[in-house]
Structure formats: C-alpha cells, structure tokens
From TrEMBL:
GO terms for molecular function: mRNA 3'-UTR AU-rich region binding; NADPH binding; quinone reductase (NADPH) activity; zinc ion binding. SMART domains: PKS_ER. One of its GO terms (cellular component) is cytosol. Keywords: NADP, Oxidoreductase. Residues 12-325 form the Enoyl reductase (ER) domain. The keyword Oxidoreductase applies. Gene3D superfamilies: Medium-chain alcohol dehydrogenases, catalytic domain, NAD(P)-binding Rossmann-like Domain. This is NADPH2:quinone reductase. InterPro entries: ADH-like_C (IPR013149), ADH-like_N (IPR013154), ER (IPR020843), GroES-like_sf (IPR011032), NAD(P)-bd_dom_sf (IPR036291), QOR-like (IPR047618), Quin_OxRdtase/zeta-crystal_CS (IPR002364). It comes from the Bacteria.
Length: 326
C-alpha cells in the first residue's frame, strides 16, 4: 500500500521538508502497522532537520523526521500478540512523519481511557521527558523550588503542573504577558517575563536568596549560564533542549563555589528498553488519570503544511503541544 510521508534529502531550513508517497509493506515479524491520526511535533524534529548535534544515529537520506505518533492498529506481523486491529495506540520510534507506518511492537503503547489519540500524539514525547526529568534524573521532593524555562511551551506546561503536584514551588520564565497567563494557569506559582526582568535576580528574590534546587532549560545558549546563578548549593542545571543554540565552552569553575551539577540528557537513554518505556508511560498516564496533568493540543497542522508548522515552532509562536494531522 501507499502512504503520504515527509522526507528531507538534505539538512536545512523548513523548505527541505518534502511531501512524498512511499510504499508501506506488510508488517514484518514483531511489527505493528499503524494508521496515524496524530503525529507529534517537537523541537527535536527541528534539530534533526538542521543536522544539529543530538541523539540521532547517522542515517542516509532521505530521512523521515519525527519520533512519536498515535492512531489505530491496522495489521499485526508474525509473532505479535496482545494487540488487536482497530485498537487505539501510541508509540515512540523514529520516522513518524508518515500517515501509515510499521512500528516495532515493543515500542507501542496501549492508550488508557481518557487519553485520546490526538492528545497522545501531541504529548507523548513531552510526557515521557517530563517523567524522567522530574522523577529520575532529579527527584523532585516536596518543598523544592524549581525553575522552568519556556514555561508556556508544550514541555513547560507539563513540567510545571507535574512539579507542582509533587510538592514543589514552581517558578517559570516566559517571553510575553500572554504566555505568563498560560504559565500561571498550568502550575507555576510565580512567572518571570525575561524580556522585562533579570530572571536570575528575580528567582533569587523569590527564594529569599537561597536559589532553586533544579533548573529545567530547553532554551540553551541564551539562558544556561545565567541560570547557574539561580541554583542553591548542590543544585542541578538540566539542559534538555537548545532552542536558542547549543551551550558551548562552559567554564567548570562556575560550578565550583556551590558544588553545582549540570546535565545534558536525552529521552532515548531513559526509555531505551521496552520495560523502561512502559514504566515511564505508565507513570505519565497515571499522573493524567490522577488529575495532576491536564493535557492539551496546541496548533493543528495538516501533514502537508509541515513547513509552516516548523516555522511556527522554531519561531516560538506556539503554546501547548502542536500536532500534525495526516
């Protein structure tokens, strides 16, 4: 059968994204064929499109971007059990920008009641990322103060809600009054407009000079080094995204006085095994079921409009979790 897909044949700006028709063979042994209803749109896709540094294995062109989606099971490969045709599922596996595709069965997740395919397609990667950032890489505890950069974005709203549910005091940074309203409605106790205030000084003032336990930074170059000033003794700065560019040439002496830690993690390491993927997804779905997380879908784009979707995401013109609709 044939399927619409988005390929790149070289790295570059959004114009390199091309719509093509590809052949989809029957699912091989251990695979499930999924007809997607929602495909996640994430900043990681932009890094891959540009050929930037990241957790991507070198692959020959053409490359199909994306790593998450949701839809219904259409067919099962040999040896696959526990699934049925018509079942709503989500998955995490590279090559998502395609209407119909085959996915390894051990990367597929059954969707629980209350989480639609569109919500899962838009939020799965962000939810799994929030899970390891808050529960494993740094374990947020009641009474901690945390700083979330880009608090009105798709990742920021999940981190802020979940951190608050874990008992933290959540400080968020945003770039406009409109985004401040979004952040305050999604878990932040305090919001700093970094275009109007020095976020480091304001964070220290909000914590009576003590600083925060952890900084969650998806911005990178523009904020990472100033963020170190916001940390308490033994605090951790986590850079999990680089929307403003890579953090380069870090002077380790900046960490010395307060014995700070820094980390540049990737989700793939934390869900490398099927067991880790399912444990992470179970924790994410449980937080949704408990009302700790309110999932939303941001802008919806047709798969054919992927170039505009990338322009909007890269220009920070989106809130919540944008999604591609095949």
């Amino acid at each position: 059968m044939q399927s619409s897909a988005i390929h790149i044949h070289r790295h570059g700006d959004p114009s390199v994204l091309e719509r093509v028709d590809v052949a989809v063979p029957p699912p091989a042994a251990g695979e499930i064929r999924i007809r997607q209803s929602a495909i996640g749109l994430n900043f990681a896709d932009i890094y891959q499109r540009k050929g930037a540094h990241g957790p991507y294995a070198q692959a020959p062109f053409p490359i199909t971007l994306g790593a998450q989606g949701a839809g219904v099971v259409e067919a099962l490969g040999e040896g696959v059990s526990g699934w049925h045709v018509g079942q709503s599922v989500a998955y995490f596996q590279p090559g998502a920008y395609q209407a119909v595709r085959n996915v390894q069965a051990d990367r597929v997740l059954a969707l629980p009641a209350g989480i639609s395919e569109e919500l899962a397609g838009a939020n799965l990667l962000r939810g799994l990322t929030a899970e390891y950032l808050l529960r494993r890489l740094y374990v947020v505890r009641p009474g901690d103060a945390v700083l979330v950069h880009a608090a009105a974005g798709g990742m920021g709203v999940l981190l802020s809600q979940w951190a608050r549910a874990l008992g933290a005091t959540v400080i968020g940074t945003v770039g406009s009054p409109q985004k401040a309203e979004v952040a305050l409605a999604h878990g932040c106790h305090h919001v700093i407009d970094y275009r109007r205030e020095d976020f480091a000084e304001r964070t220290l003032a909000l914590t009576d000079g003590a600083g925060v336990a952890v900084v969650y930074d998806a911005v990178g170059k523009d904020v990472f080094v100033p963020s170190l000033r916001c940390l308490r003794t033994l605090g951790m700065a986590i850079n999990y995204g680089t929307a403003s560019g890579d953090v380069e040439g870090l002077d380790l002496q900046l960490l010395h006085a307060k014995s700070l830690s820094v980390c540049r993690p990737t989700l793939r390491s934390f869900i490398a095994t099927p067991e880790d993927l399912r444990r992470s997804a179970d924790a994410f779905f449980a937080a949704v079921a408990a009302g700790q997380l309110q999932l939303a879908v941001g802008s919806r784009y047709a798969l054919a409009d992927v170039q505009q979707a990338h322009r909007d995401l890269e220009g920070r013109a989106t809130t919540d979790a944008p999604v591609l609709i095949p």
